[in-house]
């Protein structure tokens, strides 16, 4: 990240001065590049194992007007800071861009929505925790809750037209449940709402299947043609303070009337026209058998052994881990890798000079000499582990230790034990590393020799006979 920021800063400082200037390689520079290429080729050994040239994606990049404007503004800010001037953005954010303003509006709206949820007694944690008891139907449940929430927010502003809500409980007699479902199926503006899961149900999926079974029975009996709109809606129960079932709520042109028990929609309309907002008890009602969904969530959360779940997830990690299984080899072998890459196109710098030209061969070890010493071994093989530890201590404890495999039943413990023993982090081999060094067998060592990478496969006869 620091390197990238430095490049951007340098580009900003030089953009206005040098962006339009173009330079070509001098004959001396081209000669130098050719000499480098010949030098590398000369150092190749006959038994070199070359990975081949790695083509780079060097598609020409041109600054857009937006990018150019951004860089020029960044340059100005750098100069302002250098001159001791505090940037405007640090003085109170007076100059907020249009994009930032739009984001602020979005987050402000979300904050208002959260506030409205809180007014109905629903915390953000409860809202997110719905997934805990939803089982395989979690996404459907969350989507339904979001729709219900949005509907409540919209209803608080204005509600045109007629809508009737039936609040039911499956603790009511079955004939009353059937009667409500039949009525709701005939009215496209009717909703049948449930407060929570029935006693003994583990997840929302079971509730959905139970409701569908009732609708299917009514359909087969010829009592309904279309299924009614049945929803799990604890928010609505809290909003209208529904304590017994059945209950009804009718909204019409923004006016609301509530009733306990059952009556006709025409009766509720008449009472609403008379200015009544609570019709009281109109028929027999029953206690609601379903727990409020949020109470159910909190109870189940309290019963969860989170430490046990965490430990099980940790224990499963190594069982699911894809180890790079490299077999041992009977005889020792040495091969070399040329890390050079070949440029497929010219790569210009911001000031127009060429960093590299098409066809140029570049060896990173020429530019930045490294003293690599990496030891690859199978930690599940006791002999290989002992050999690797011996090699590590011979290196003066400077080698990088990389295991190809760990014990699947107790990988974390083994990783920790070896790390503690050698005093530095033990790593686990990843596929990209194995491919980059063309690893075929374990144990192996990778070191640098001049401008080449030296790979040594240790024959089985060596690491099995001793560990010195």
Index terms:
single chain, 468 residues, six-stranded mixed β-sheet, alpha/beta, Glutaredoxin, elongated, 2 domains
Number of domains: 2
Q: How many β-strands, per DSSP? A: 18
What global shape is seen?
Answer: elongated
Average per-residue pLDDT, rounded, comes to: 75
Q: Count of DSSP helices?
A: 17
Description:
The two termini are 42 Å apart. It is built from 17 helices and 18 strands. The strands form five sheets. The chain has a six-stranded mixed β-sheet with strand order 3-2-1-5-6-7, sandwiched between helices. Strands 9-18-17-14-15-16 form a six-stranded mixed β-sheet, with helices on one face. It has a two-stranded antiparallel sheet with strand order 4-8. It is an alpha/beta fold and 468 residues long. Helix 1 crosses helix 3. Strand 1, helix 7 and strand 2 form a beta-alpha-beta unit. It has two domains: 194 residues, no CATH class; 175 residues, 3-Layer(aba) Sandwich (Glutaredoxin).
What is this structure, in a nutshell?
45% of the residues lie in helices and 16% in strands. The strands form 5 sheets. It has a 6-stranded mixed β-sheet, sandwiched between helices. With 468 residues, it is an alpha/beta fold.
């Amino acid at each position: 990240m620091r390197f990238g920021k430095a490049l951007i800063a340098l580009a900003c400082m030089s953009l206005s001065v040098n962006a339009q200037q173009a330079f070509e390689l001098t004959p001396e520079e081209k000669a130098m590049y050719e000499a480098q290429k010949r030098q590398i080729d000369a150092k190749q050994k006959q038994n070199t194992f070359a990975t081949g040239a790695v083509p780079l994606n060097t598609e020409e990049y041109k600054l857009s007007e937006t990018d150019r404007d951004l860089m020029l503004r960044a340059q100005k800010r750098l100069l302002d800071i250098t001159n001791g001037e505090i940037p405007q953005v640090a003085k109170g954010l007076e100059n907020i861009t249009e994009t930032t303003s739009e984001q602020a509006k979005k987050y402000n709206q979300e904050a208002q929505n959260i506030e409205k949820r809180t007014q109905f007694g629903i915390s953000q944690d409860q809202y997110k925790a719905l997934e805990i008891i939803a089982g395989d139907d979690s996404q459907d449940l969350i989507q339904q809750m979001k729709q219900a929430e949005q509907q409540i927010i919209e209803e608080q502003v204005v509600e045109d037209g007629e809508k009737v809500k039936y609040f039911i409980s499956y603790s009511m007699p079955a004939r009353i449940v059937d009667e409500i479902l039949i009525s709701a199926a005939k009215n496209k503006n009717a909703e049948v709402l449930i407060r929570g899961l029935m006693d003994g149900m583990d997840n929302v999926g079971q509730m959905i299947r139970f409701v569908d079974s009732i609708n299917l029975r009514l359909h087969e009996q010829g009592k309904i043609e279309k299924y009614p709109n049945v929803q799990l809606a604890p928010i609505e129960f809290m909003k209208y303070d529904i304590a017994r079932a059945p209950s009804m709520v009718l909204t019409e042109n923004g006016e609301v009337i509530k009733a306990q028990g059952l009556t006709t929609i025409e009766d509720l309309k008449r009472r609403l026209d008379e200015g009544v907002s609570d019709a009281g008890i109109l028929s027999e009602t029953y206690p609601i058998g379903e727990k409020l969904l949020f109470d159910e969530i909190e109870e189940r959360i309290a019963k969860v052994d989170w430490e046990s779940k965490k430990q099980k997830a940790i224990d499963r990690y190594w069982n699911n881990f894809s180890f790079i299984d490299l077999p041992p080899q009977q005889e020792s072998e040495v091969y070399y890798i040329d890390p050079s890459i070949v440029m497929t196109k010219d790569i210009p710098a911001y000031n127009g000079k060429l960093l590299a030209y098409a066809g140029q061969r570049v060896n990173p070890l020429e530019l930045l000499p490294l003293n690599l010493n990496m030891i690859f071994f199978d930690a599940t093989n006791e002999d290989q582990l002992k050999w690797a530890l011996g090699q590590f201590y011979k290196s003066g404890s400077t080698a990088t230790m990389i295991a190809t495999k760990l014990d699947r039943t107790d990988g974390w413990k083994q990783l920790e034990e070896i790390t503690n023993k050698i005093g530095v982090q033990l790593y686990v081999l990843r596929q990209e590393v194995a491919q980059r060094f063309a690893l075929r067998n374990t144990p192996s060592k990778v070191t640098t020799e001049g401008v080449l990478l030296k790979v040594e496969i240790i024959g089985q006869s060596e690491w099995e006979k001793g560990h010195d």
